[in-house]
Every structure is written in structure tokens, then in C-alpha cells.
Amino acid sequence: MVLRVIKNEDIAEEVLQDVFLKIWDKIDQYDSAKGKLFTWMLNIARNHAIDKTRSKEISKEQKTRAIENVVHRVEAREPVEQRVEDIGVKDIIKSLPDEQQFVVDYLYFKGYSQSELADEFNIPLGTVKTRLRLAMQSLRETLNVT
Amino acid sequence: MNLQEYIASGILELYALGELSEQERSEVEHNLVQYPELRAELARVEETQESLLMQTAVRPRAAVKSALFEKLDAGKVSVKAEGKVVSMPSASTASVWKFAAAASFTLAIVSSYLAYEYHNRWKSTETNYTELLAQNQRVAQDYNRVNQRLDQIENDLKVIDNPDFKRVVMKGTDNAPNATAHIYWNEKSNEVYLNAQSLQALAQESQYQLWAIIDGKPVDAGVFDGNPKEALLKMKNIAGAAAFAVTVEPRGGKESPTLSTMQVVGNVVKG
């Protein structure tokens, strides 16, 4: 997830290490009543990765390009990036309607926040939420979650 | 509150993703405590999310793990936090290594100390052993000396006890009025022993010389130093002596006595 958001393996490894150190340091703040450990760790990792993309020039460039090439974004990318980003993810979410694939991809694998997604693609916040909801319900079946 | 609508709004998905504001977040948390249905739904959302992410996960290179443990070992983490996560597999691996490192370090320290300690003990033992050897040698030498002295005294006793030895008393002359000396003379074997312990020590270049008077002529019977340690001095064999006398002569003695230096003299008592 971190790698998919960051897109650069070296930086992603650095972020991953920071994330683990942070988890290690803050483990006593984890409260099982508020969610699973995985969710808690995911939130730390995701926030950290997003912070990193915002602080790095590369991410600006990548985001700008992403915005400009919404339609042809897959074709525009370098082969390595394409491989890293799309292997696995596409297979799992391909059964979803396009607009749901889009939301899942951007929220989970491109490090967009819901408001960024809403602003940049002119989708109402409520729509982002419901699309995510529908997507997750479909995935529940795809992934055999009971 | 309509739970179905609340769930359908997708807020739990955003909660699981960590996309809610602080305020929305605490609202959801509050509701979770109240409604078991919400908790069950959140659990499903979380599982879906976990499954999605685990199946799309890219495994990081092994170097990331080792670098992370290096950082953890470098003490960037408080001891308290470390204690709480000790049950995590990664943490237990780290603590096994930490424990192994600490154990081998301790072992090294202890071994060094013991090596030092035993080296010191060995050193002092070696010194003691050398001293004992030297002492033993001294004792052996003393023993030999005493033994020799004992042999001599036994020998002297034999001479004194032997009735074949004639005792000749020599008295001091005017040169040494207080001096006396005795001759033990065996007329059969011609052996002569002299007790001269009362004679004074002489200068380095001088020695006493014993003379036997045979047929009126003085015959050399040997030289000796003054104040001798031995009770009896073995002198030259003499036959047919009528008297004995001791003079002071240059070291090594002379062929004929210097009569003016005569110290003691005594006649042999016949019969």
C-alpha cells in the first residue's frame, strides 16, 4: 500500500521503516475497542505515506500528471510504475463498476483523501462515500469475507 | 438513529480508512460503544479492507526489515514501548538477538575476569613454588653441613676414647702464658691429632706450625690456622716423638722452627 502510494521503492522503504518505528513507539496508544490492530496500523501507514507524497516534489509532479492524464493515465506511465501499481489491484477490483474501481484505487492505492478526490474530480463527498461503501460490499464477496 | 442509513452512508468505510475528521471520528467511536450492530459491520468492513490490502500487498525487500531492527536496537525506542510489544513476532526476534548479544557480551566479560584471576593465581603459585625450592635447597645444605659436623665429632670422640691414643699436654710459654693445646698421638699407627682451640687467631700471612722433637731434633708435623673450628686437627704422622711444640711461622711453614716464637710445648709422658 505504502509502495503503491509513494511509487518510488527507495522512498517507500524509508517510509515503511518510519511507520514501523512509529507503531513501535505508539503501540500503547492502540485501543482495541476502536478497531482492529491492522486498521490502526493501516491508518498510521497511510497518513505517513500521504504526508510524504505531499512533502516531496516528485509527488507533485506525479499528481499533476495524474490529473492531466485522467483518461490515459495507465498508458502515460513508465512500465515499472505501471507494473508495481497495477499487478494484483486490477485483478481484484476489475469486477467493480468503473466509478467504484476509481474510488477504491484513488483512496487506497494513490493516497488521495476523500476531499481531494471530491475536489479534483468534481464528485460530491456523499457520492465518494457511497461509492466506497458499495465497492467494499462487492469486494466482501469477491474476497470471501464472511 | 437509523442504523441502516448510517451504515449505508459509507461512514464506517471512511472510519476504517482513517479518512474522518477528529469530530466525526469521535462520533463514530461513541456510536460504536452504543450499537453492537455497528461494531459487527465495522468488523466486516475492516476485514474486507485488510483482505483487499493483504492480497495486493507488495512484499518489501528483506533489507528493510534488517535496517528496521538496526534502528530499534540503536535505542530509538523507549524501553517501555519495547516491553509492551514483546509478543509481536518481529519484536520477539529482535529480543532474541538482543538477548543473545547481551548473553555473549556477559560471557566474554566473565571469561576475561576469570582468565585474569586465574593468571594471577598461577603467577603467585609459581612464585611460591620457586621460594619453596630455594628453601628446600638451603635446608638440604644445612643438613649436609650438620651431618658432616656430626661425623667429625663422632670421629673426634673415637680418637679421644681410644686408649691407644696418648694425650700430650702442651703448656703456654712466656710468649703466650694462657695458651694450652693437646696432642692425641697413637704410637702404634703414628696418627697425630691436635686440639689447639685456645690458640689465638693470627695475621693473614702467619700460621702456626707443629713440631715433634725426635731424637733431639725438631720435625715438621704440619701447619694450621689460629682459632680452628675443628676440635681435633689431623696432623702429619709422627713416630718416636719425645716432645711436641707449636711455633708461629710465615704462612706455609718453615723447615726449622723459629724458637723465639714458640707458643706451647709439652713432653710426651713415657709409659
Question: Key terms for this structure?
Answer:
heterodimer, A: 146 residues, Rna Polymerase Sigma Factor, Chain: A, Arc Repressor Mutant, subunit A, 2 domains, 10 helices, 0% strand, globular, B: 271 residues, alpha+beta, Immunoglobulin-like, 3 domains, eight-stranded antiparallel beta sheet
Q: What CATH architecture of the largest domain in chain B would you give?
A: Sandwich
Q: How would you spell out the order of helices and strands of chain A?
A: HHHHHHHHHH
Strand arrangement, largest sheet of chain B?
5-4-7-8-1-2-3-6
CATH class of the largest domain in chain A: Mainly Alpha
How would you describe this protein?
The complex is a heterodimer of chains A (146) and B (271). Chain A has helices at residues 2-6, 9-26, 37-55, 57-68, 73-76, 79-86, 89-93, 98-109, 114-121, 125-142. Chain A has 146 residues and is mostly helical. Chain A folds into 2 domains: 1-73, Rna Polymerase Sigma Factor, Chain: A (Orthogonal Bundle), CATH 1.10.1740; 88-146, Arc Repressor Mutant, subunit A, CATH 1.10.10.10. The model of chain B is unreliable at 77-87 (pLDDT under 50). Chain B is rod-shaped. Chain B is built from 7 helices and 8 strands, in the order H-H-H-H-H-H-H-E-E-E-E-E-E-E-E. With 271 residues, chain B is an alpha+beta fold. Chains A and B meet through helix 2, helix 3, helix 8 and helix 10 of A and helix 2, helix 3, helix 4, helix 5 and helix 6 of B.
